[in-house]
Amino acid sequence: MTNLFCALRGRMMATVFSGGCDKQVKMWPLLSGGQPVTIAQHDAPISELAWIPQMSLLVTGSWDRTLKYWDTRQQNPVHTQQLPERCYALSVRHPLMVVGTADRNLIVFNLQNPQTEFKRVVSPLKYQTRCVAAFPDQQGFLVGSIEGRVGVQHLDDAQKNKDFTFKCHREGNEIYSVNSLNFHPVHHTFATSGSDGAFNFWDKDSKQRLKAMSRCNHPIPCSTFNNDGSIFAYAVSYDWSKGAENHNPATAKNYIYLHLPQETEVKGKPKIGASGRK
């Protein structure tokens, strides 16, 4: 049975794409109730997917060290992009795309010229990349890692003084992976979700945590906001961060929860001490 690594909606939310350890991407029609169709394939497990509506293409990232762009009406990829290592994370805010691979590579693409790398940098975090999220204004990106830390990175060298990293999803000496990063579509603050079973809301501009939520009993492997930010959806399940020996099928149930964010939880705040104001 396929381990589902990633799924997303596209084509006016009438279609779901899914990919996993069977090395295939399936397209599921929601409205017609038809059977899924295999529309893409890699030589190793597929870790990331993104539908790019501006290009009418699906991009897939794999442990076979490639990105592939697919026109779902064609059998072969439109373009195959070699990566320096296995793809671990991917985020698109057209025309910006950010890819995180093994060995802490962060590769930036301008999708107006997708066959050429725009920039490649080493992650500011010391350990394995777990997730990335492109800024809504396409001026930079967030990167999260297994060490319970997030980096805020700007693309323009003139804004490098705004780069910083911060700790999160830690409790005492316990350090948990940051599994998911999601920008709010209206306020452009963001959420982090982690293996500690918690999600928190942050404002990168004022460098403040807006709200810390109560922890769940199991890790949160993935999360997202809906289109207007009125719903924050997150999955609760075992995330394999402690290996197969710590997986108990009797207790490791899978759940999807919906949180309705209050404006005070997700609206940014003025910088502390900015121009004498607080």
From TrEMBL:
SMART domains linked: WD40
Record key words, sorted: Repeat, WD repeat
Any Pfam family: WD40
WD repeats by residue range: 39-80, 178-212
Residue ranges of the TM segments: none
Record carries keyword Repeat: yes
Name the record gives this protein: Uncharacterized protein
Organism the protein comes from: Aquilegia coerulea (Rocky mountain columbine)
